Amino acid sequence: MQKFRLYETRSKFYMIGRDKNRTFWRVLKIDRLEPSELNIVEDSTVYSEIECCDLLRRIHEGNKSTGGLKFVTTCYGIIGFIKFLEPYYMLLITKRRKIGTICGHTIYAITKSEMVPIPHATVRSKMAYSKDENRYKRLLCSVDLTKDFFFSYSYNVMLSLQRNLSDHNTTGQSLYETLFVWNEFLTRGIRNNLQNTSWTVALVYGFFKQVKLSISDSEFNLTIIARRSRHYAGTRYLKRGVNEKGRVANDVETEQIVFTDAHDGRPMQISSVVQIRGSIPLFWSQEASRLNIKPDIILSRKDSNFEATRLHFENLVKRYGNPIIILNLIKTREKKPRETILRSEFANAVRSINKNLRGENRLRFLHWDLHRHSRCKATNVLGQLGKVAAYALKLTGIFYCPVTPNLRLDGLCEYSYSENDNVIDHCITEQTCINKDNVDKETEISNCYCSGDENKDYSVKPQMLQSGVLRTNCIDCLDRTNVAQYAYGLAALGCQLQVLGFTESPYIDLDNPLAKELMQVYESMGDTLAFQYGGSAAHNKIFSEKRGQWKAATQSQEFIRTLQRYYNNTYLDVDKQKAINLFLGHFQPQQGKPALWELDSDQHYTIRKLGLYFADDNIRSSMKRSLSDGNIISESDNTIRNLNVTNCQHLSEKPDKRFLSGSTPDIFTCGSDICHCRQIYEGMVKGQNCESDHICYDEHGDACDCSNFLDVDWLSSSGNSCEEELLERSTSISSENIANELVTETSASDSGSSIKGRQSGDGELNKDSNSKYSESFERWVTQGEMLFV
């Protein structure tokens, strides 16, 4: 159902819902006489329009003595129900707007929403009007549903296109339990009560942009979707690293969809590719400080065996398959070690995990200091990132399928109404398993693309599948990461246009108008995601330079954004985090328990099913800080404890490729204890010029000579040394941090790459005749060995 009308009497709310084609009407009854309980009943009768009008007339006649039946509002779906201290509230979408279509299914954004109290005013107690109740209401309303939330009635927008067209097991209630549905908690009560999702909409939070582009006088549609995970969600300094479940902060899946409309007897064609970003999967944190614009990094020792890190990558394998390619963009050289501490520990974690993995199951790990290379005049940053993107695409492939008309019609989304007249989608079991080593064969899956022509039947025949994913991170996973993701997106676009038949070569030059238009979309996505997590637009220095923007204007813009991010992180993020915790159900208010705003930090509590539990009050005393001078303050090991992890799927287990870019149902509480830091080895990766040797140090500070850590010079160089800038822009806020405290995160990348669309599962490298790659780089690509550049 897509449109609803809400009516009220003194004793009940009546929600009248109908389908888009006005063929049937349903009635939902909500009791208003219970002050603190939610009682919902769905009328089993399916009404016609005349029958529904007659029902409303009879309800009005029967309630005339108490005021009759009154119209409240028109709405377009229930977001959910929430209770603070006493009454329940119903959240409704009252205005919507169309923002795009996928496979003929409309995607909407919220224009206006309302929160309606359920109990009638005559049965509410004083608690319903208390200061705490009103404060909770204001806090929840600070989550702006009109910004960056989107939904669809008939397309599972929380899943990737590949999964939509091949997965028939994730339907109905299980769709709400996937990690990208943000109102899972709010809808849990009504879904469990009614055992259906007919009255609610599943909200995805992130970014959605659809544009029409052209090449050689032929048009195609480009859609960029960013889906932010609801697990371990929050703000920059309050959500860092990984939690005990293996979920990371700032976990965002980005999908790039390219499709053409059917015309002149040619079938509609569609292609997609998925990449992800996420915080470094270690237990680490930072505390916002009014005196330090770049807070110290705190690395915890609570997971000495990297079990949470292992869980994280096992989850990625379940979602995307193998191989998992890690592009780590953090610094390799610092005067005062900060990022380098995490870089070294991340390398240790991957080394530990890879010891038990073989072949394509090994994590492909690439260290690439984007900040250093972007300052090196001899380095073509965009070209280098383009080559990384090309090889990542060679390893994972992309999703591609033509849609053939005049065959049978099956559903793209199970038990969901199509956007087209007289079409109801019903998925049927997949007919043939898709083998990774034989993806070029036409394997028919009984799903359907529903176009505007409801009289035609369609059959989807995927010819290429994506297996594996590129995971990119820097420290915040905002600025540097976004430009690297643009580089990957540009390389992917070249491959997509090639398989769609628009071009003969997958290479798109950085000066091509398509590259510039794609950059605008990725820049917009980067700004949106940065506002959500970091409090300001992204630092887009390299984008600005590529556009030819005046350098002084770029520097001024970057400086303002840094101050804006600092202000939001320091003064506003605490309340923003509390609102997110309330919306997601991580904190559930209870009478007689401490209020949410009485908790001094998001890190000091966890929410369990049975109520509120506080972490150990002595936790803070057991921290070890990475101070600005690089020293580690050691304390006793009394608080060291390992995670209890059982029954975890091993990374080498192969998932079903149909489940690319989704998640298994997983409902858990969020929170973390902060224990003291892992003892970091004293030997850090030494600073180098662009052509200096790359040395990896082991846990004890000794140089490693293991096969996973390589001395690499994998790209051709001009022979010029890298010149560091003489002066870095900085702001002196703390007397202990006079310089280098306001180094903005640079981002870099654009990329054109020369690769062929993968038609089969061969693992050979397709070398560019104009480029020279070392044997060690080829081994990284084919065997998963570690690479440091």
UniProtKB/TrEMBL annotation:
Keywords from the named record: Hydrolase, Membrane, Vacuole
Class of enzymatic activity (EC top level): hydrolase
Source organism per UniProt: Cajanus cajan
PANTHER family the record matches: PHOSPHOINOSITIDE PHOSPHATASE SAC4, POLYPHOSPHOINOSITIDE PHOSPHATASE
Renumbered residue ranges of the record's region Disordered: 744-774
Listed GO CC annotations: vacuolar membrane
Name of the protein in question: Polyphosphoinositide phosphatase
Membrane topology: Peripheral membrane protein
Quaternary structure (record): Component of the PI(3,5)P2 regulatory complex at least composed of ATG18, SAC/FIG4, FAB1 and VAC14.
